[in-house]
Amino acid sequence: MIEELLQIKNDAISLILSTQTTEQLEEIRIQFLGRSGKLNIAMKQLPKLTPEERARFGKTANEIKNILEEAIINQKSKLKNQNKNKEKLSIDFTTPSIPPKIGHLHPITQAITDTVEVFKMLGYQAADGPEIETDYYNFEALNIPKDHPSRDTQMTFYLDDKEVQTNTPGEIILRTQMSGMQARVMEKMEPPVRVIVPGKVYRYEQVDASHGFEFWQLEGFLVDKHVRLTDLFGTLDYVLKALLGKNIELKFATTNFPFVEPGVDTYIKCTVCGGIGCSFCKNSGWSEIMPAGMIHPNVLRNVGFDPKVYNGFAFCIGFSRLVTLKYQMSDLRLLSNPDLRIINQF
Ligand SMILES: [Zn+2]
């Protein structure tokens, strides 16, 4: 009798362990532990047994019932885990993925690319140069000798070169203006020269809505025979309207810079306030965006061009300010703010 019970147990265990689904497992459970299951049928023989045999038989049947129930629970959780793993593995590789977040060009970079394209149409080449510059290229080659008062307007960052000992102290600086590239480029070229140089410049300046200690400029210069001041005006008018729209208003005012003769300041009607006056244009309604003028004969002489044969014009667009005006931003400092809520608006 006991052997019959053990046989039922062994059959049940081997069937439980071979199940692949919870439905199969449930069938096995009913087959062995259900009301008309094999264990209950075996129990029906109980009255035929002697009292001692009955006690032993009942105890064994109960133990087997517990063992089988436990085996079913274990198998059920094993099957569940297997299904989970199957779900993990059943990836549909053809499903379109979530597109990764990709960045975009910074508004300054976008504007530089646009500007280079506009100047290309006029036959200009774009050049690049060092941010760490010598006093000679930044100032002296541009007709700004060491004691010239205009140096005071370009608060300069001097680099510590005590360790190097190869340069006179104060000779190595962070470039204060992109105009320093004039001499570097013209030394290597013969007229006609038409070049623009976008880049970042540094000045030890008080920072406010329209001034920064690091900002972008775009230097441009043209050297040829018979160049006139009106060529400069026409070029700037064409370029600025191409970049900022046909409705902008420009005005030129005479001024004095050592590297140009005559020199002009270019103003654009403030696009932030529409000319009414705001903190960006210092309530004047106009924003100064570039010094310009006819290249001083001394600058041409410094690079080996004969000023009796050649002349030309130069201009230096305050590029950070131009971008601020283009997007009607009220503060130039927003351009160097890494906050994505700002950058993502462009
Ligand atoms: Zn304004």
The number of E-state strands comes to 9
CATH homologous superfamily annotation of the largest domain: Bira Bifunctional Protein, Domain 2
Radius of gyration: 43 Å
The shape, in one word, is: rod-shaped
Relative helix content = 25-40%
Question: Mean pLDDT, nearest integer?
Answer: 86
Strand residues, percent: 15-25%
Give the CATH topology of the largest domain. Answer: BirA Bifunctional Protein, domain 2
The topology string of helices and strands comes to HHHHHEEHEHEEHEEEHEHH
CATH architecture of the largest domain: 2-Layer Sandwich
Distance between the termini: 87 Å
- Could you state the oligomeric state of the chains shown? single chain
Please list the strands of the largest sheet in the order they lie side by side. Answer: 1-4-5-9-8-7-6
The CATH class name of the largest domain reads: Alpha Beta
What is the structural class? alpha+beta
Spell out the key features of this protein.
rod-shaped; 11 helices; 346 residues; two-stranded antiparallel ribbon; binds zinc ion; 7-stranded mixed beta sheet; alpha+beta; BirA Bifunctional Protein, domain 2
Explain what this protein looks like in three dimensions:
The protein has 346 residues and is α+β, with helices and mostly antiparallel strands. The protein folds into 2 domains: 88 residues, no CATH class; 237 residues, BirA Bifunctional Protein, domain 2. The chain contains 11 helices and 9 strands. The strands form 2 sheets. It has a 7-stranded mixed beta sheet. The protein has a two-stranded antiparallel ribbon with strand order 2-3. β6 and β7 form a beta hairpin. α1 packs antiparallel against α2 and α1 runs parallel beside α4. The chain is rod-shaped and about 135 Å long. The mean pLDDT is 86. The site of zinc ion has 7 residues, from loops.
